[in-house]
Amino acid sequence: MKNKKIIISIFTLCILLAFGFMRWDNLESEPSADFKYKYDRWTGQKWVEFYPPLAFSPNSMEFPLIYIDEIHSNDINNYLAKQALSGELVNKWIERTQFTDGYLGLLLLNILVIIYIFIREFLLNRNKHQSSRKSYASL
User: Fold this and answer.
1) Which of 36, 42, 29 has the alpha carbon at shortest distance from 61?
2) Structural domain boundaries of the chain?
3) Beta-carbon neighbour count of residue 48 at 10 Å?
4) Which of 25, 47, 58, 133 has the fewest CB atoms lying closer than 10 Å?
5) pTM for this prediction
6) Strand partners, 63
7) pLDDT at residue 58 above 70?
8) What is the rounded distance in angstroms from the CA atom of residue 29 to the CA atom of residue 83?
9) How far apart are CA 31 and CA 118, in angstroms?
10) CB 26 within 8 A of CB 42
11) Half-sphere exposure in the Cβ direction for 34 (13 Å, CA)
């Protein structure tokens, strides 16, 4: 019974890690240093990372593509203003954040369960070992 708990917890951890690695799919598009398209498999949403061409930092701007498949540099401001006013941009961010937070919560919970099982087994075995030493010493 003890081994089943740890095996199930480690198996669940492996599944969660695999889901995490398989979440994003990088999409091929026209070669562009400014845009990188990706697909979030959990939410079914296409996202774009925009790297401003004259920016002095490697930071990117990331946003969902709603009702379109591609975007161009000169359309970004109009697109973001339109989606922000409609509220859909925020809704997509909230959905993505909820999925990410839920995943991280499950991952953390699973890791804590594994740590708890290891500590409990270690302490129980240590206490049993000490009590068996005492019983042999009293003989």
Assistant:
1) 36
2) 2-133
3) 23
4) 58
5) 0.76
6) 48
7) no
8) 23
9) 49
10) no
11) 10
